[in-house]
Write a structure and sequence with these properties.
Blueprint (H helix, E strand, L loop, with lengths): L7 E15 L3 E8 L3 E7 L19 E6 L4 E9 L9 H16 L7 H16 L3 H18 L21 E5 L3 E4 L2 H7 L5 E3 H9 L5 H19 L5 H20 L1
Parallel strand pairs: 3-5
Antiparallel strand pairs: 1-2, 1-4, 2-3, 4-5, 6-7, 6-8
Helix pairs in contact: 1-3, 1-7, 2-3, 3-6, 5-6
């Protein structure tokens, strides 16, 4: 029997999540595609000065990609810029790198998530449009929840896990990443002290609504989401978090030197 040609995929909407050097002139590209999920591919010759791919394979830019191959790593054969999204800069750029790292670590390769792909594009547009720290944090919380739901770990933020009773804003809960919120009595909360899984009902409801009335609620929501995501990441660290911490520390040192 004649050998069958490898499968070919054409003009698939995609975003580059990460790219790194491969051999002397090529790149390994991790792409998030709409119909095929996360796909790894070799972009041969992409680092050559005259390569058409050289300036195209950038993160956060809407692309269409064409590739071929049936193995773990495909071969990229064409890329084209789709346009329509402004460039990210400053804090929004750091937020984008954080979101890309989450997608890389939580999505299995070639597991399609068309709705999440659309959510990702909307997240990038929202990060570019809202230059406030509070607004960008709210955008990230929404995408974190969407990513967890797409990977089978949707968070129940409106009802207690066992009883189904609606979450009350004025009560305190212990949130278990595998089974949800459970109300606890005041004396139990006092005994629990600084348990990292304690969270106010108001914060759970704020996460569900995507609206954070004050800095305390936003901060507690960030802490809870970080804990849940760390649980799902199974001790795999987030490089983007370390970068943000280093930048904050550097900025604080500069302020101290200028004082």
């Amino acid at each position: 029997m004649p050998r069958q040609p490898p499968p070919a995929y054409r003009d698939e909407p995609a975003f580059v999540l990460h790219a790194y050097a491969y051999r002397e002139t090529s790149l390994i590209v991790e792409a998030f595609t709409r119909s095929h999920g996360r796909v790894g591919m070799v972009a041969r010759g992409a680092r050559r000065p005259r390569s058409e791919l050289r300036g195209l394979l950038q993160a956060f830019q809407p692309l269409t990609l064409s590739w071929t191959g049936a193995g773990e790593l495909k071969t990229l054969v064409h890329a084209e810029w789709r346009g329509g999204l402004p460039l990210l800069g400053g804090a929004a750029l750091l937020c984008g790198f954080y979101a890309n790292e989450l997608v890389l670590k939580l999505l299995a390769r070639e597991d399609a998530h068309a709705e999440l792909f659309d959510d990702y594009g909307e997240m990038l547009a929202a990060l570019a449009a809202d230059t406030t720290a509070a607004g960008q944090a709210a955008v990230l919380r929404r995408f974190e929840l969407q990513l967890l739901a797409a990977t089978g770990y949707a968070m129940n933020l409106t009802h207690e896990a066992r009883s189904g009773v609606p979450i009350a804003a004025d009560r305190l809960y212990r949130y278990g990443p595998d089974h949800g919120a459970q109300a606890i009595a005041a004396h139990v909360a006092d005994a629990a002290g600084a348990s990292r899984w304690l969270v106010r009902g108001a914060t759970l409801l704020a996460l569900a609504a995507g609206r954070y009335p004050d800095a305390d609620t936003a901060g507690e929501a960030k802490r809870l989401m970080r804990q849940v995501l760390d649980h799902r990441l199974e001790a795999r660290g987030m490089a983007s978090r370390r970068i943000v911490r280093d930048l904050v520390a550097l900025d604080e040192r500069k302020q101290e030197d200028n004082a």
